[in-house]
Amino acid sequence: MAPSLSIRRATAADAPAVAGVHVRSWQRGYRGLLPDAELRAMRPADRVGDYTFDDDRGPHTWVAETSGGIAGFVTICELDGHAAVMALYVDPDHWRTGIGSALMDRAESEIARQGYPVARLHVLKGNERAMDFYAGRGWAPTGRVRSGDVWGVHVDEVEYEKIG
């Protein structure tokens, strides 16, 4: 695990750093899965206003903070009567340091604390690294795929589920 790592609830002041992690993660992690021109055009400043960290009704976001700043985040919410992991992103410079696992530990702990028997998440189709990560944590594909536009880019996402 990364040295001096802390996990805490995100605040409005974290939005620029979270947007930076979000965009850098997409640009590196989705290379070859989404159009290069779309990935290159993404700017953190365009995303800052999309986050609602100070709304206690949800969604709820936690950030992973190291001595160098925010290195990742996870967002959960209730969706159609079950818990949903809406986002899990780690800055590419911190991949494979345990930050993603620490963030998912926090998300799964919160989901259990809230009493949800089922949790779901979606993974970009073809994102084998993420699929392997979730499978290793007991998440399984449901066989459902959703299609839509995210940040102006058409995506197909595979649904994963974890029970209990």
What does the model show?
The chain has 164 residues and is an alpha+beta fold. Helix content is 27%, strand content 37%. The protein is built from four helices and seven strands, in the order E-H-H-E-E-E-H-E-H-E-E. The chain has helices at residues 15-29, 36-41, 99-113, 128-136, and strands at 6-9, 60-66, 69-79, 82-90, 118-124, 140-150, 153-163. Strands 1-2-3-4-5-7-6 form a seven-stranded mixed β-sheet, sandwiched between helices. The longest helix has 15 residues, at 15-29. It is globular and about 40 Å long. The two termini are 26 Å apart. The model has no long low-confidence stretch (mean pLDDT 93).
Q: What would the principal axes of the Cα set say about the shape?
A: globular
Q: What characterizes the major β-sheet? A: 7 strands, mixed
Order of helices and strands: EHHEEEHEHEE
Overall helicity: 25-40%
Round the mean pLDDT to the nearest integer and report it.
Answer: 93
Protein structure class: alpha+beta
Number of helices: 4
Q: In angstroms, what separates the terminal alpha carbons?
A: 26 Å
Please mark out the parts with pLDDT under 50 across 5 or more consecutive residues, or reply none.
none
Strand order of the largest sheet: 1-2-3-4-5-7-6
Rg from alpha-carbon coordinates? 15 Å
